[in-house]
Design goal:
The protein is built from 3 helices and 9 strands; from the N terminus they run αββββαββαβββ. The protein is an alpha+beta fold and about 220 residues long. The protein has a single domain, classed as Porin (Beta Barrel), CATH 2.40.160.20. Strands 1-2-4-5-6-7-8-9 form an 8-stranded antiparallel barrel. β7 and β8 form a beta hairpin. The protein is elongated. The protein starts with a helix and ends in a 12-residue tail after the last strand.
């Protein structure tokens, strides 16, 4: 699927959920000429996941400007790594022990898989509805789609079927909302919360970042307004 198709699908989903916007609005009415590289942000975050321990994340976001009135397009790349929780490890070890016992017909073995790290590199595309609030702040809310490249690593699972099971390329989606402050016309700080879903792994994700603006600010975004 090409980038334009991704953007069209994301724009349609955001427009459907946006108050006051008719679902029947033609995507052709959205002006692709407004999309251009405007800035880059560096992010640090904290994950609160379901299957791995809490961990930090690091990322980059790209500001491509506005596809339509108030509809901003923001691609990004994010990285995190964390060990599986104790509960997940116990479940995995029990399944391996059961498998070995069923295959050998012998007594149930004691299985110790040590520590298994799960790493994720995601490439996302977010659509954000942006509006002004008092005190020069901007706030935004939206949804996004992503491709997650997951990799499992551990001394005891290297080269085994367990490592193969943990290695995958998975599609995901997120809902998010945040607050942004233009310190100057070329520098912004921002924070947001995201709820990410990818297969049987979900997590709440807080992010904080600094963005350097290279392109022009849109009307209403200027710091000295």
């Amino acid at each position: 699927m090409g980038l334009r198709k991704w953007i069209e699908g994301l724009a349609l989903a955001v427009l459907i959920g946006r108050p006051g916007v008719a679902v029947s609005q033609e995507l052709a009415d959205l002006d692709y000429d407004n999309l251009s590289f405007r800035g880059v942000g560096i992010e640090w975050g904290k994950l609160y996941p379901t299957r791995v321990d809490r961990t930090e994340s690091y990322g980059i976001r790209i500001d491509l400007g506005y596809l339509g009135p108030g509809l901003r397009i923001v691609p990004g790349v994010t990285y995190w790594s964390s060990p599986l929780t104790t509960r997940e490890m116990v479940k995995l070890e029990e399944r391996v022990a059961t498998l070995v016992q069923s295959q050998t017909g012998g007594p149930r073995p004691a299985v110790d898989l040590g520590v298994i790290e799960w790493t994720d590199v995601s490439i996302s595309l977010d659509g954000q509805v942006v509006w002004e609030v008092p005190l020069d702040f901007l706030t935004f809310a939206g949804l996004g789609v992503a491709t997650h490249v997951l990799n499992g690593e551990g001394a005891s699972i290297s080269g085994t079927f367990i490592e193969d099971l943990l290695d995958s390329v998975t599609a995901g989606f997120n809902l998010h909302a945040g607050l942004e402050y233009p310190v100057t016309n070329w520098l912004r700080i921002y924070g947001l919360g995201r709820y990410e879903v990818l297969g049987d792994l979900q997590y709440f994700h807080t992010r904080f970042g600094v963005q350097v603006m290279i392109g022009d600010n849109a009307p209403g975004e200027e710091r000295d307004r």
